[in-house]
Amino acid sequence: TPTTSERRRRQDAIAYTQYYYYYYQYTNKMACLIGNDILNIGTRKWEKQQQDNPNILVGRGADGSFISLPAVRPNSFELPPVANPAEFCQRNFASACGGSDSAQEVKFAKGTTTLAFKFNDGIIVSVDSRSTMGAYIASQTVKKVIEINPFLLGTMAGGAADCSFWERDLGMKCRLYELRNKKRISVAAASKLLANTMNSYRGYGLSMGTMVTGWDETGPQLYYVDNDGTRLHGNLFSVGSGSTYAYGVLDTFYRPDLTVEEAIDLGKRAIYHATHRDAYSGGINNLYHVTKEGWKKIHSIDVNDLHYEFLEEKNAAMST
Prior knowledge:
This protein has 320 residues and is an alpha+beta fold. The chain has eight helices and 14 strands.
């Protein structure tokens, strides 16, 4: 008589054999769109579907035909039937299709304003804090500056989960570099690590536009990295839905010889005007100043307070 553990091993072996049989049977049709009925697993509706139709409709293939797989037991775990992740994401994520609407089940609805610029006394990093899901404001207190280490900062724009995960992953890699080489990683190397990661996931539907900035042996450095693996070195960047408004202010008032006070004022002024005109930006203005001693957080100011501050300044200027 087989023991309990032996029976479990046999059951597992049978389950794995069945899974791989169905997997290889349908592996040439796996670029499919997962249906909403996947959320019904384990419910009465799911049990009724199993009784009425043993084959559950799970998706649509590359040729447009629907694919059915045998019903899955609620207590079992099946991997998504996707052989080509890049093609799957192009079918299901609007951002991977150039922003077009192809009736995808999942769409990115993003909005933010982040900026950073170099000047003679360091680097200013200024961001808003609003998180949106389309027209819905999900949060007004999102921290869009990732503090990678005491000398390195990263900003978030795009999908919050993608930015947060991959920049924290970058922080881990930077720390490992420091432990192995007994020195801090350069900003160029850190941005290259992130760009390499993004390039390896290119076409998979990630949504990320970030700036990596800090102070290393070569001085202040600023890089832009996005989900396509693009990596740009520059003196001034703004990323997000409100970036066009921020660029208007930055292009007008930016100078390399700004004083620290002028640079801080320019950073918060550009974010204010972007949040005022862009409905998907707002909340709190978080501003950082990076020097050779490391980064320092200067302030967190509600953009509503900035509105009245600049309104008084405007009224005073118009009255003279």
